[in-house]
Amino acid sequence: MIAGNGADLAVIQLDIDDPAQGQAADAFVMAQADGTPFHRTAWLRAITQATGHRALILAAVAPSGHISGLLPLHHVRSRLFGKALVSTAFAVDGGILAQDQRTVAALAAAAEQLARTIGPVPIELRGGLAPGDGWERREGEHVGFVRPIADCDEAELLAIPRKHRAELRKALANPALMVETGRSERLIRDHYHVYAQSVRNLGTPVFPAALFRAVLHHFGEDADIMVVRDADRPVSAVLTLYHAGRIMPYWGGGVTDARRLRSNELMYYRLMGHGRARGMTLFDFGRSKAGSGQAAWKKSFGFAPRTLVYHGWSVDGAQRDISPANAKYQRRIELWKKLPLPLANLLGPMISRGLG
Questions:
Q1: CA–CA distance, 181 with 191 (Å, rounded to integer)
Q2: Run of H or E residues at 43
Q3: Distance, CA of 166 to CA of 24 (rounded, Å)
Q4: DSSP state of 23
Q5: Is the pLDDT of residue 6 over 60?
Q6: Which contiguous run of DSSP H or E holds residue 352?
Q7: Of 268, 305, 311, nearest to 289 (Cα)?
Q8: Which of 25, 142, 205, 277 could cross-link 348 (Cys pair, CB 3.0–4.6 Å)?
Q9: By three-state DSSP, how is residue 183 classified?
Q10: CB atoms within 10 A of CB 154
């Protein structure tokens, strides 16, 4: 037991390697309207397998044995970026998932106790319910983009603002652009090739290839890859998650030529149709930095930005600083953009593991 909150509620640490406990946690997540892919044990296992960051799940349990709240965490440790308890690592959402405020308070107190025990280390909650007094509220840095999927392809096309729609029509009229979706080895390799080039061009270290493979493995049919090819050359690619009626393109990008070809526009338009065919009703375009070019691009696709709220706590007020907006990282980012792709792909995973 990690902590208690009276005789009728206890917070325990679940063992996600125990099938019964893992199934109970996932059943609770899937039953909650605010549950996300990042609360699921598939995400926790994938991150641990690919990066070594230990997964921990705090569960508030009633005397009946039923779960009333969860807080999934990763213990992220890095020589470059420091240590933290993160809910959850490499995610854009997560945080406390609970049915009432008493459960929220119990989980927040248990997380604080755990942070003191293993550190002390700071806690970072990405989304979820507000943990209460003593926690820092962080908002304004990121925005999210979600809207319903239209009833058909033509309606989806008309939902895109006119200027951006004209760009998409150019891609639709290009017979050389072909789209393929699935989980094959070829798609996995093509996705990594495109994604690695895309993030290098942005000055960001690429994640380990093992991370994408682990997510695909643990999510099973709830994750796949879409690749756009110009003839036989992959030019845009995205790894997508599916959760409770929501399609979430998560790790995506394009090569330098993608802008000229409008292949990213084509990819996300086709992905909306793919999600509709799978029975999805919401398209979650993920988060972007507020005021960034990426945020403006998503808005021009017909998505309204929504401010994301995160929370943090530490014993002494200290926190990790992994934001690329920090001035101390700017020179490194510019240098990274100039690295040969093979060298960036060699060094990137060693650095990015610590970002969490």
A1: 11
A2: helix 41-51
A3: 48
A4: H
A5: no
A6: helix 341-352
A7: 305
A8: 205
A9: coil
A10: 9
Amino acid at 262: R
Q: What is the residue type of 282? A: L
Distance CA 85, CA 96 (A): 13
Give tens-digit pLDDT for 152-203.
999 999 999 999 999 999 999 999 999 999 999 999 999 999 999 998 888 8
Rounded distance, CA 105 to CA 5, Å? 9
User: What is the DSSP secondary-structure string of 72-137?
Assistant: EEEEEEETTTEEEEEETTT-SS---EESSHHHHHHHHHHHHHHHHHH-S--EEEESSS---TT-EE
Helix residue ranges per DSSP H, 122-233: 153-159, 162-172, 185-202, 209-219
> pLDDT digits over 77-133, tens only?
988 778 999 999 999 998 999 999 999 999 999 999 999 999 899 999 999 999 999
SS3 231: coil
Residues in the chain: 356
Helix, strand, or coil (residue 195): helix
- Is residue 12 within 8 A of residue 1, CB to CB? The reply is yes
- With pLDDT > 90 as the criterion, what percentage of the chain qualifies? 78
3-state secondary structure of 219: helix
296 touches 163 (CB < 8 A) = no
Q: Which domains does the chain have, with CATH numbers?
A: 3-140+309-320 (3.40.630.30), 150-280 (3.40.630.30)
From CA 177, how far away is CA 173, in angstroms rounded?
Answer: 9
> Can you tell me whether residue 235 is helix, strand or coil?
strand
Which residue type occupies 264?
A: N
d(C-alpha 67, C-alpha 64), whole Å: 9
| Nearest alpha-carbon partner for 200 in 92, 80, 325, 352 | 352
Distances (CA, A) of 351 to 79, 89, 136, 206, 347: 10, 14, 27, 8, 7
Residue 278 has pLDDT above 60, yes or no: yes
pTM over 0.85: yes
Sequence-distant (6+) residues with CB within 8 A of 140 are: 290, 307
Contact assessment for residue 348 and residue 206, using Cβ atoms and an 8 Å cutoff: yes
